[in-house]
Specification:
Structural class: alpha/beta
CATH class: Alpha Beta
Oligomer: single chain
Shape: globular
Radius of gyration: 17 Å
Bound molecules: S-adenosylmethionine
Strand order of the largest sheet: 7-4-3-8-9-11-10
Largest sheet: 7 strands, mixed
Number of strands: 11
Helix content: 25-40%
Distance between the termini: 22 Å
CATH superfamily: Vaccinia Virus protein VP39
CATH architecture: 3-Layer(aba) Sandwich
Amino acid sequence: MKKPIRSRHQIPFFYDKSEADFRQDPYERFDSMVLRQTALHLADELWETYPFQSVNDWILEQCPRTKGLHIAEIGCGVGRLIATIAERLEAQCWGLDYSYQMLRQAQAYWVEGKKIHLPGGDRGWMDMELSTSRLPQLNFGLAKASELPFDEETQDILCSSFLLDRLEQGALALAEMHRVLRPAGLLLFVSPFNFQKKAHWDQWYPAEKLIAHLVQLGFELLEHREDLEVFEPLDRHGNKIYWKCSGLAFRKTS
Ligand SMILES: C[S@@+](CC[C@H](N)C(=O)[O-])C[C@H]1O[C@@H](n2cnc3c(N)ncnc32)[C@H](O)[C@@H]1O
């Protein structure tokens, strides 16, 4: 595995993110982005149920039950999916993300077992202290999807949720995923295909374009679902965003 360039508060940086990069990255905005992701993924009692349960269930269904697999989530945000995988599958897990603020929250909550403060305030929910039991076997690091820190053919499973349509350099990221996956390794995506740029719609939509690209890279399609529904709660009153998600599972063949 690549050596980190530096570390900040025990988060290894595999990409030399500059101060200008920090300022430009919307996912470094703590109040609007990190707290929203924290509420969504770590504060189940606000919603009575975990809003992304169907995403995590589908990804876990695709994973073989072999212990000790090397599994990484790319774009892990505050880490709920990769922590669930690490817990259930007793795997060697990495959660990678380009946002230091997301990773700080993930590391404090899952690895260090610290209490996280979630302010209610403008969002209409109560102030909360969130905590869980520690998962010391879980690792978090800062990396770009297009420059993964793993050696060639070292990962058994790569997964991502709500990342694909946010990538600036999608083709580079997919080639990187192919590089680091072992032969017969699994690539699992859940995505709402909610691209933000015309060029990205043209390049990857409909899903068949993405599938054809991955087949050319050396993957076979195992499953393609279009019925993964996610409701993202917005406030305590129950206002929600509905996300129509695709689930795509591939195996590396060459
Ligand atoms: C919409 S959030 C999704 C977070 C979480 N996976 C989920 O399902 O809610 C997108 C995440 O991808 C990360 N991200 C965006 N571009 C990235 C890149 N090029 N490489 C790695 N992570 C990236 C962001 O920092 C953010 O945490």
